[in-house]
Amino acid sequence: MRHCSLLRQLDPDWMPQIAHLCDRFEAAWQRNQTPRVADMLGSGDLPENAAFRLALAVELVLIDLEHRWRRWAEHQRAGECSSERPPRLADYAARLPEVGPLERLPDDVLAEEYRVRQLWGDRPHCAEYLRHFGPTRPGLKAALDRIDREIKVQVPTTDGTAPVAPSEDLKRRSPSGTAAVTETERGGYRVIQPFTEGGMGRLSIAEDRALRRQVLIKEIKKDYAEQSGARERFVAEARIAGQLEHPGVVPVYTFGVDRHGQPFYAMRHIQGQTLDTAIKQHRAQPSPRGLKELLRRFVAICQTVAYAHARGVIHRDLKPTNVMLGAFGEIVVLDWGLAKPVADGGSPDSTMGDVAAHERARQYELTASGSKVGSPPYMAPE
């Protein structure tokens, strides 16, 4: 599922049915079939509720859109040129009464088409979307800008030009040109596309070949790869995240090194919105129900942090943008890159509070005592 904003307007009792239908549709694509959105919508056992059918149709369309553009891009790379362009949202809106007219679709749905075209298609400029929809959609530019930030590879090129979105040009660059991620192997994982970057690490969307699922691969940036302190911090981050087994912490699947000897680890790909986005949405349209939901999520975050403290780990960069909210109630604390095991934390059976963790902390102090780390607006005053 792509978890478009239309789902938030539905009765929660309908969510399992939509998820089931989307999973079936996605599975058909993964079996190299070509399912049709109209066939799924024509199923006789679907509710006649207009909001339900719109949300389901849009979720199916977004899945279909991505797979068709990805398949088209693969054919282009293989030299199997085709003059038939993959469909766009306007094509679906014209064919499917549940979807059209195009003007009623929310900003995040339009932005998803923009993302797909940037990654696997003709890479349009955001001005194209703003010219068509901008005057009546003040939030669209922010959504497009966010996608640009997420998919661009923020590393310098040899000629000093600006970073570029993933494309054939990026894949043809030599290792000396950029540190860009291409479709390469990391153990049993095939890196598909860049996702986002932080200060020291780089995230990419990858395929787990054995289990046929999408995961996130985190690697250390090339500029930091030879710095022993940076490598130690990266390894410590992977260990901390991997040893915190809690529903509120992103599960780490594996840790390894690539053929260049650089460390990486694979983790679950959480899809949803950040707590920061949810707070902004509530401020724009406050309601008692919305406030109650935010408070429920806040309590869940507190429980996750309390668990980490009990295991002897301090996050040190807890903020709304580091909390992901899934469409089915997931509340996950992200980015444990600044987390630190403390010498006297944890219960007697605590993994991060055990002797090995304490020994690691003594062997290398990744941040000196009293040094300031984290995001200033969210630091404790003391």
Describe this structure in words.
By secondary structure, the protein is an alpha+beta fold. 40% of the residues lie in helices and 14% in strands. It has helices at 15-30, 37-41, 50-77, 89-95, 107-120, 126-133, 140-151, 168-172, 228-243, 275-284, 288-310, 355-363; strands at 185-186, 189-197, 201-208, 213-220, 252-257, 263-268, 272-274, 313-314, 323-326, 331-333, 340-341. The strands form three sheets. It has a six-stranded antiparallel beta sheet with strand order 1-2-3-4-6-5. Strands 7-9-10 form a three-stranded antiparallel beta sheet. β2 and β3 form a beta hairpin. α3 runs parallel beside α5 (107-120) and α6 (126-133) packs antiparallel against α7. It is globular, with a radius of gyration of 22 Å. Residues 153-184 and 344-370 have low confidence and may be disordered.
Q: How would you concisely characterize the structure shown here?
A:
The protein has helices at residues 15-30, 37-41, 50-77, 89-95, 107-120, 126-133, 140-151, 168-172, 228-243, 275-284, 288-310, 355-363; strands at 185-186, 189-197, 201-208, 213-220, 252-257, 263-268, 272-274, 313-314, 323-326, 331-333, 340-341. It is α+β, with helices and mostly antiparallel strands. A 6-stranded antiparallel β-sheet has the order 1-2-3-4-6-5. It has a 3-stranded antiparallel β-sheet with strand order 7-9-10.
Brief descriptors of the model:
382 residues, alpha+beta, six-stranded antiparallel sheet, three-stranded antiparallel sheet, 14% strand, globular
